[in-house]
């Protein structure tokens, strides 16, 4: 039997099938000088490559409708852009070969979009993908993209681009394995959304070739090449039991011995609202309000905010909705709330800190939330992001209560807040741990850098220590302590969090059945034992393995 | 030279659909129309990438300009489109 390959497991569950690889991006050929007499032919080849990519994407868009078609049509418009072709031609006439001309032409627009920030910067991944396609066409290489082997498969890739994930067919993809990416990256989020097991940050996957059978375990984070038939049968039986158990269970989350753990959903955009409201949940554990504020020159009016919040509260009538007030700054800059010139925005004026500079922003938001809460039957809780000091939590809670919002809490994302959780909890009604930011600040690791995935792994024992400290403080004072963030979507980690004393888990709707089933199969004492094992493990990989072995 | 200054109506700025609608409309005009941030370098309104690269947000003021036969009507039509901000 070949050696088991390890990475970071995502989504739970197991799947077995043949590998289908995404064509690996090749190293560009060495630069080649293009003499002036060859420039016209080289320029013509560059233009033909751009036309070829546009034609391919047009064909692909033809049978599609709705959002998927719009995504591709926008890509066609970009790659057919006359300014792009002119720029690439100018590069060729200045002596560059076609590959370098395309790289430079796409790169100049990417740089401008990146500088524009926000939604504009999100288009950079599209441009990178179009550039790779154009270069492949120019060099006569296979076009990078999703494999279509015509049968269900385990998709193996270096990493997946957002444009690929939009086209992924859940009927055909049994599991995802990527060499790069982290547990909070878009591949992981997509896998959880689709409910397929995934292993990310798995460098050993580069050795997997097309057609080879693998057994992927999204809980243990392992990929086993050429598994023995008995192993496959065993894993398939366990998977069937897991799915059956998940499908049979419903209602509030509870352990085998009846300890309640609220299962909540995350909501961040109006289009997610319907799916989130239809999910079997006790409410919303994290309602991100940034969508109302992004890419605008001025803050939305109180009336506009009231209407938007009211729609969410109406959809969750009779259930809890935990609203996070505006979390601007860092990766979500807003012209009216954030300074453009901070050298280190993740450590700058962001989250609740923006309210110090512009008190009206938070005041208006609380006014709108209170009005919307008044008009609807949801149980509205509000919480502030990026709280560092107990005094900040106290001031926020006082402001919320002054607006008639009785339940106010603080997010624990900064190590200082976790270390002083007891003081924080004393001054407000509940705490909510944002594990993605807490990991970023605990490990001094930028969460947008895939190369730092190991440091950002939510299984890191140091992170679990801070969760433990926070949950214990909440427990002593009788304050609920929730976890929102990708950590809460992992069923094995959910058991650990429960054992550490966390009282609610908030995740994508697709993750809830798996969380509910994992809780129902374990007692609170089991969870505490798993928590102790994970927290005292020497490293994240050992913590994960111990819990997989014990659970 | 006919030109018009308008505030961007689309909530997400000149991004995604609003940008695509502008570029499609500009491509139908008999004359090239340029777009610029106030005081900024003008770009070809028929180039989606150039329009996106302006990074123009909701409420920001942009200048549309054109020259030649039909310039007046072209600028008028595109200015109305930018101001209306259909999503």
Give structural notes.
Chain B: InterPro entries: HPr (IPR050399), HPr-like (IPR000032), HPr-like_sf (IPR035895), PTS_HPr_His_P_site (IPR001020), PTS_HPr_Ser_P_site (IPR002114). Chain B: It comes from Streptomyces sedi. The complex is a heterodimer of chains A (551) and B (87). Chain A is globular, with a radius of gyration of 25 Å. In chain A, helix 3 (82-93) crosses helix 4 (98-116) and helix 11 (302-315) crosses helix 13. With 551 residues, chain A is α/β, with parallel strands linked by helices. Chain A folds into 3 domains: 5-22 and 145-244, 3-Layer(bba) Sandwich (Glucose Oxidase, domain 1); 36-139, PtsI, HPr-binding domain (Enzyme I, Chain A, domain 2); 249-522, Phosphoenolpyruvate-binding domains (TIM Barrel, Alpha-Beta Barrel). Chain A is built from 22 helices and 16 strands. In chain A, the strands form 2 sheets. Chain A has an 8-stranded mixed β-sheet with strand order 1-8-7-3-4-5-6-2. In chain A, helix 7 links the parallel strand 4 (153-157) and strand 5 (173-178). Chain A starts with a strand and ends with a helix. With 87 residues, chain B is α+β, with helices and mostly antiparallel strands. Chain B has one domain (3-84): HPr-like (Histidine-containing Protein, Chain: A), CATH 3.30.1340.10. Chain B is 37% helix and 21% strand. In chain B, strands 1-4-2-3 form a 4-stranded antiparallel β-sheet, covered by helices on one side. In chain B, a hairpin with a 5-residue loop joins strand 2 and strand 3. In chain B, helix 1 (16-27) packs antiparallel against helix 3 (71-84). Chains A and B meet through helix 2, helix 3, helix 4 and helix 5 of A and helix 1, strand 3 and helix 2 of B.
């Amino acid at each position: 039997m070949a050696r088991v390959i390890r990475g970071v497991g995502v989504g739970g569950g197991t799947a077995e099938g043949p590998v289908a690889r995404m064509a690996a991006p090749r190293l560009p050929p060495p630069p080649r000088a293009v003499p002036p007499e060859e420039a016209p032919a080289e320029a013509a080849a560059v233009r033909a490559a751009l036309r070829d990519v546009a034609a391919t994407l047009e064909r692909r868009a033809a049978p599609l409708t709705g959002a998927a078609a719009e995504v591709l049509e926008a890509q066609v418009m970009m790659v057919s852009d006359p300014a792009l072709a002119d720029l690439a031609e100018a590069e060729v006439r200045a002596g560059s070969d076609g590959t370098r001309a395309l790289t430079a032409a796409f790169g100049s627009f990417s740089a401008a979009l990146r500088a524009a920030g926000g939604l504009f910067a999100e288009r950079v991944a599209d441009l990178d993908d179009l550039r790779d396609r154009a270069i492949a066409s120019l060099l006569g290489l296979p076009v990078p993209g999703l494999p279509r082997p015509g049968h269900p498969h385990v998709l193996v890739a270096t990493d997946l681009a957002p444009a690929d994930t939009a086209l992924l067919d859940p009927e055909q993809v049994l599991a995802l394995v990527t060499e790069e990416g982290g547990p909070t990256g878009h591949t992981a989020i997509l896998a959880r959304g689709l409910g397929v097991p995934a292993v990310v940050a798995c460098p050993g996957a580069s050795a997997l070739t097309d057609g080879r059978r693998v057994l992927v375990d999204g809980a243990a984070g392992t990929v086993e090449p050429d598994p023995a038939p008995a192993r496959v049968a065993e894993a398939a039986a366990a998977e069937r039991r897991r799915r059956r158990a998940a499908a049979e269970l419903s209602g509030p989350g509870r352990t085998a011995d009846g300890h309640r753990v609220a299962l909540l959903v995350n909501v961040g955009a109006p289009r997610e609202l319907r799916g989130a409201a239809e999910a079997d949940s006790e409410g919303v554990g994290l309602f991100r309000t940034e969508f109302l504020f992004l890419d605008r020159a001025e803050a939305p009016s109180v009336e506009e905010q009231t209407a938007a919040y009211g729609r969410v509260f109406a959809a969750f009538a009779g259930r809890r909705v935990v609203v996070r007030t505006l979390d601007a700054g860092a990766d979500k800059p807003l012209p009216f709330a954030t300074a453009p010139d901070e050298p280190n925005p993740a450590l700058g004026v962001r989250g609740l800190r923006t309210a110090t500079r512009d008190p009206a922003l938070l005041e208006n938001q609380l006014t709108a939330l209170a009005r919307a809460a008044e008009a609807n039957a949801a149980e509205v809780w509000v919480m502030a992001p990026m709280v560092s000091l107990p005094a900040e939590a106290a001031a926020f809670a006082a402001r919320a209560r002054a607006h008639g919002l009785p339940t106010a809490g603080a997010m624990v994302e900064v190590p200082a807040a976790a270390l002083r959780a007891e003081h924080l909890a004393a001054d407000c009604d509940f705490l909510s741990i944002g594990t993605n930011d807490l990991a970023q600040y605990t490990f001094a690791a930028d969460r947008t850098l895939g190369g730092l995935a190991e440091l950002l792994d939510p299984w890191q024992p140091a992170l679990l220590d801070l969760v433990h400290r926070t949950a214990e403080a909440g427990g002593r004072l009788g304050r609920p302590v929730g976890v929102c963030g990708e950590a809460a979507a992992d069923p094995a980690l959910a058991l650990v969090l429960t054992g550490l004393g966390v009282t609610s888990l908030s995740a994508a709707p697709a993750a809830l059945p798996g969380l509910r089933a994992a809780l129902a199969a374990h007692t609170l004492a089991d969870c505490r034992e798993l928590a102790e094992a994970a927290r005292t493990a020497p490293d994240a990989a050992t913590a994960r393995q111990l819990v997989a072995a014990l659970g | 030279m006919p030109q018009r200054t308008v505030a961007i109506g689309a909530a997400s700025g000149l991004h995604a659909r609003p940008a695509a609608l502008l570029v499609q409309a500009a491509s139908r005009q008999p004359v090239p129309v340029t777009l610029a941030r106030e005081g900024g370098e003008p770009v070809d309104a028929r180039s989606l990438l150039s329009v996106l690269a302006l990074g123009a947000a909701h409420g920001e003021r942009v200048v549309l300009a054109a020259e030649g036969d039909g310039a007046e009507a072209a600028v008028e039509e595109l200015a109305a489109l930018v101001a209306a901000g259909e999503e």
